[in-house]
Input
Amino acid sequence: MTTKLERLIDQGVGRIPADIVLKGGSFFDLVTGEIVRSDIAIGADRIVGTSGDYRGETEIDISGRTVVPGFIDTHLHIESSLVTPHEFDRCVLPYGVTTAICDPHEIANVLGAEGIEFFLKSALETIMDIRVQLSSCVPATHLETSGADLPIGRLLPFRDHPKVIGLAEFMNFPGVIHKDPVCMAKLDAFQGGHIDGHAPLLSGNDLNGYLSAGIRTEHECTSATEALEKIRKGMHILVREGSVSKDLAALIPIITERLSPYLALCTDDRNPLDIAEQGHLDHMVRTAIASGVEPLAIYRAASISAARAFGLRDRGLVAPGWRADLVVLDSLQSCRAEMVFSAGRRVTDALFATRKPVAPIGLDSVKARPVNAAHFGVPVAEGETSVIGVMPGKIITEHRRYRLPTKGNETTVDLINDIIKVAVIERHGKNGNHANGFVQGFGLKKGAIASTVGHDSHNICVVGVNEDDMARAANRLGEIKGGFVVVEDGKITGEIALPVAGLMSIEPYETVRDTLHNLRQAALALGATLEEPFLQLAFLPLPVIPHLKISDRGMVDVDKFALIG
Output
């Protein structure tokens, strides 16, 4: 009886027909940079033949088309797509993303180990190969109230799961440099495995110390200078282009043939509306090529270089013996997927229908106390008031100071300077904490918008022009079990329910996409000027310790980080 392996060899030799043969087209050889006219033969889950003529049980004419390896998103939070892993799979795989390396950091900060288990169960069912990095920072900071705690003892049971790659983005870089015991326990446990980095603006000897912990990848570079230092010091740079953090343009100078073995692509946080309007990693590829990047450099970064960075040795090339993750393109320049194969299976609606469902979790995670307008008062202070300055296209913010108008014994908004109120409300049912402040850059002239997506602890974050609308928006989030809400003059003008841990919808991605479009219109009616006001809102709660000492050689620049905690 012929074994599976023997059958694959026979198909490669040509003794028997392959399962599927793509005929009449070409493939992009990411080793030599050549476009090679050839049949591509597939047996089971892998490529069995190239550079020859093959017979197949199924033959597909791809004349005039070019085949490239499936794209690998090397760092993302599926929760930021606002849909479950099953819907993310159905949404993104048709764009050619056949592997996604996710960090369930958001759901883990709400639900802890239960959230990671949900992702691992989902990853075993999806058509796309979803790999999981174990969330390293739960809670993300002591400055906010998180919904869960994941010490090393809660992570170790997942370490050997077949879908787990390693330890996710290690955001607590001060903890690494100062050898915090909690950080050390996690880093020690994953020595020899993959440890993902997260160290924006870190450089010099501080960076050296951080890398000495065995951290190898980084997605937070916002300039070519920063990226080059990290590449020289052995890091693999993950070029990011998400819905809020857009670093591709700044990093175009480093995307070269010489450096491409040390680069990969990621989205970090991207929502279904942007995916529908622009695409996913395919958007990054065609944008880079249009900006003058050599196709060989960007396609390597999108596949083979990414695979090697994360130890996925079976994918990233169109070559015999490699996993049959393939994208059939109209052209390298336009990078539009006309056909996608995942582990040798042609991606169709019927294929998605074969997956087993995974029951949603965290449907009652929003436990915030009701609030009223009085909760949003800010007492008058002498001198200038601290204001969070939003920087469009970035998750980092600026510390600005203004002399704001007052009314009675309270400080009020300054619409002339685009300064409105912002508040964070604890929603995990632990202490009812509530913090108020001011933010500049949203453009709102009236109303309020609120969200239970608030990185990284995911408490309620609300911005608004008047306190009554802010209270209405915040309370509505409890009624719909999490999501986004827009309020104008006391009326709900837009909302989306995200009941899965207050982060993800239980609806199909098409419904989420269309609802987001309506939400965007409702926000624009308030005067919002940001391209992504809801995701920008989600990043406002990122905290900072003012004048945080990193080492004897430097300080964190407080003017580059958000102020609310």
